């Protein structure tokens, strides 16, 4: 039986078990400039962290982002996360609102992080069972005008929220591409190259189909914008059955086995690009102002949070570093209203506590020199 040409139409949502929880407490030990810092959320929906530059605000968000099982919002080398004058290791320990425990830790001399859930050793990938985490940092403020590679990384992280195997497929594809380049350079046997190309074709179709599905689903909730993904493989999938698309890409790979130096000159999902259209302005996001780009980016993240809630029945964590940067007063008011109505627990940082003063159901945390100097809970 042939598969359909459009792997994402019509959009159907199947509720998943609500296994992902809100964070109730987090403790950082020897992480960045924090010796030992603890925040107890006490049921607050919004956690606002303020302080001067270098106070350790972003470090708290970065620690939370590690609970996703990924490398974190900065993508930093693991050794650099340990406090400079510490023992070379660190830990991030959190409890959820159902009293589950999750821990990410690193010991001096180890080659990678470790994870525990309820004091049991688990693979890092298992952390997704605790919480789905989305983040925006000042780096993403320029996502629409940066390289296609930066956009692919950003959107593939969002796609992986619903298809945990998506990142694994991309890693496998990169490995196969490197293997193919080496095989061609060394004049490998045609049958060996055919075997590699068949694996590349199948993996490429899976990667691009996941991206197409995500674009179709997020646009259902993305009222002010629209996401698109464009590339050779996406075009093949939308114009053919999936089986035909896979065969056509395999034939393309067979016909293009040239190298330019050590770099393959081939097309594929590693060259696809994502776009965002601002429907309110009737313009592509990349030609709008910095503030307008930030606003549509936040709208995208809020739409993503809705999609997570609908598909999983749970509330994701939204991490916003310098949340109000580039936003005027009206845009900030709208942001905070939207955040309060979102189906998510929000952690946000900023220099000035006054710009957050109207946020209800918030916990205000003051950070100074890697320490928590004050915690105040606002009235609901």
Write up what this structure looks like.
The chain is 34% helix and 23% strand. It has 380 residues and is α+β, with helices and mostly antiparallel strands. The chain folds into two domains: 23-132 and 314-377, Rossmann fold (3-Layer(aba) Sandwich); 148-274. It has a six-stranded antiparallel β-sheet, with helices on one face. The chain is globular and about 65 Å long. The N and C termini lie far apart (55 Å). The model is unreliable at 1-20 (pLDDT under 50).
Number of helical regions: 8
Mean pLDDT: 87
User: Taking Cα atoms only, what radius of gyration do you get, to the nearest Å?
Assistant: 22 Å
Basic shape: globular
CATH architecture identity of the largest domain: 3-Layer(aba) Sandwich
CATH C-level class of the largest domain: Alpha Beta
For the record, give the distance between the C-alpha atoms at the N and C termini, rounded to a whole number: 55 Å
Q: Which structural class matches the secondary elements? A: alpha+beta
- Give the uncertain stretches in residue-range form: 1-20
CATH-defined topology of the largest domain? Rossmann fold
The helix content, as a percent range, equals 25-40%
CATH level 4 superfamily of the largest domain:
P-loop containing nucleotide triphosphate hydrolases
Percentage of β-strand residues: 15-25%
Total domain modules: 2
The string of secondary-structure elements, in order, is EEEHEEEEEHHHEHHEEEEHEHEEE
């Amino acid at each position: 039986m042939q598969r359909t040409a459009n792997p994402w139409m019509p959009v159907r949502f199947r509720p998943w078990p609500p296994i992902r929880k809100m964070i109730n407490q987090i403790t950082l030990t020897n992480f960045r400039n924090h010796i030992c810092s603890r925040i107890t959320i006490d049921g607050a929906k919004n956690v606002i962290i303020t302080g001067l530059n270098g106070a350790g605000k972003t470090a708290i968000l970065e620690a939370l982002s590690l609970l996703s099982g990924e490398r974190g919002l900065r993508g930093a080398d693991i050794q650099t996360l340990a406090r400079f004058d510490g023992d070379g290791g660190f830990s991030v320990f959190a409890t959820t609102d159902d009293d589950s425990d999750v821990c990410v830790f690193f010991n001096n001399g180890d080659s990678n992080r470790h994870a525990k859930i309820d004091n049991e050793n688990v693979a890092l990938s298992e952390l997704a069972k605790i919480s789905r985490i989305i983040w925006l940092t000042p780096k993403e403020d320029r996502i629409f005008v940066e390289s296609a590679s930066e956009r692919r990384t950003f959107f593939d992280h969002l796609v992986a929220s619903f298809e945990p195997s998506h990142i694994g497929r991309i890693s496998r594809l990169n490995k196969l591409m490197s293997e193919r380049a080496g095989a061609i350079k060394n004049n490998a046997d045609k049958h060996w190259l055919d075997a590699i190309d068949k694996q590349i074709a199948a993996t490429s179709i899976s990667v691009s189909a996941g991206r197409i599905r995500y674009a179709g689903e997020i646009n259902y909730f993305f009222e002010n914008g629209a996401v698109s993904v464009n590339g050779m493989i996406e075009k093949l999938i939308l114009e053919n059955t999936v089986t035909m698309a896979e065969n056509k890409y395999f034939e393309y790979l067979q016909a293009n086995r040239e190298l330019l130096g050590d770099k393959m000159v081939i097309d594929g999902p590693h060259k696809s690009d994502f776009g965002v259209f601002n429907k309110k302005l009737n313009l592509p996001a990349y030609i709008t102002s910095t503030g307008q780009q930030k606003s549509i980016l936040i709208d995208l993240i809020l739409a993503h949070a809705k999609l997570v809630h609908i598909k999983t029945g749970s509330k994701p964590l939204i991490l916003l570093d310098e949340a109000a940067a580039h936003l005027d007063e009206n845009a900030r008011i709208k942001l905070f209203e939207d955040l309060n109505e979102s189906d998510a627990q929000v952690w946000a940082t900023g220099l000035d506590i006054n710009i957050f003063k109207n946020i209800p159901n918030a916990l205000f945390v003051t950070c100074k020199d890697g320490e928590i100097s004050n915690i105040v809970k606002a009235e609901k």
